Amino acid sequence: MWMRIRAIALPASASQVLGTSLGFMDVLIVSSLGAAPLAALGIVTSSRVLFLLLFYAIASAGALIVAFAIGNHDPAEAKAAFTGTLVTNMAIGIVVSIGCLLFPREILSALSASPILTETGAAYLRPFAPYFLLMSCILCLSTIGRAAGIVRAPFYAAAASMLVNTAANLHVAYGLSGATEHKMAMLGAAMSLSRMLELAILLYAIIKYTAILRLSKSISKKLKRRMLQLAAPIVGKEFTTSAAVIVLTLLFVRIDAVAYAALAVVLSFERFLLGLLSGSQVAATVLISRFLGAGRMRAADMASRILLIGTGFFSFGLSVVLLLFWTIMSSDIGGIRLAPFVSDAIRMDFLSVMLMALPVRAINYLLIDGLLRARRLNNYALIVDGIYYWLLAVPCGLALWKLADWGLVEIFGFLLFLELFRTAAGLHGLWSAIPDRKRTAA
Question: How far is the CA of 201 from the CAs of 83, 156, 160, in angstroms?
């Protein structure tokens, strides 16, 4: 069991780390241009995440059906699910890309009251617009490709994309002179070009190494209903989460725009760390769906326990090591201050809070987006995240700012503390589902 998990989890984690590193490098490069470009990038990133989660939600629903069909030895259903997922993602990606290309200022002015942030963000968003169409295809091919057994190609594609994007970003930031808006436009174009390369590599791998992922001429009404039943709660959950994140982002900017610029760096670093642990979520989706498709309930339950225990121990050890590392790097040793940029660019208070909450965040990522989704408990996951974000996080954030006059660091820490609700609710849903399945099998 462990070998099967590792064969899927390690390449998935590596490719996810490289993918999130692109955004992290963007944040680091833009931070050298000033606080206003960094805050503008944070607003664009929050909006971008909304659609990326939508694409990933649709792709995840397709991957669940493909993995289940492979376990059930039904390649025709796998092809039909792949076709429906790819066409749906591409249709949405085309609409979003055209909208960002034609109306970047209107979109950003609706998200930010600051004219400076609107103009700076629009310079980045217009050449960045093709990114949405490209990512609609990339997320579909990589997510469903892993369900079909293609686990290394997404890593190679992400590595090539990161190398191209990083080289272009460094050249734009430090090798070119000009206005900030011009540099932001070049950074947006570099991201789109790097994703074109990633898509080309994925297409080559899928065409060459698998015969399952081919376009189907027709999709049955029964399969369309199944895809809709799976995708609707996943999409609803991602929209619920993303809308709440955008509201919290705008709230944080209004509380303290300068502090939020530092928080944006920390959140990008958090996404990088969660990428290290994302392999467990991918392994949960693929393996458990295959086991359930083959009727192997006990194997699915064993994989769930192994993934939960492994993710908990690894994330706890990672947070402890990083806390010690950053504490040493920001302290005086022998009269020499090591890495003085740490306290200025990353803010140790934000970083410490994020690292202390990392194990809980990692377990929730595995629970909500992996184990519950693989067991078709998508409606339950939607309810859990809806309660957390809209009944706990957003109201508490507003109340603590308006009534208690808390600072951004305190509010950020309290919202991470509330993540324990998601952990308890996710574990309750998982453990209550396992005995039911055992009794059904018996």
Answer: 19, 8, 9
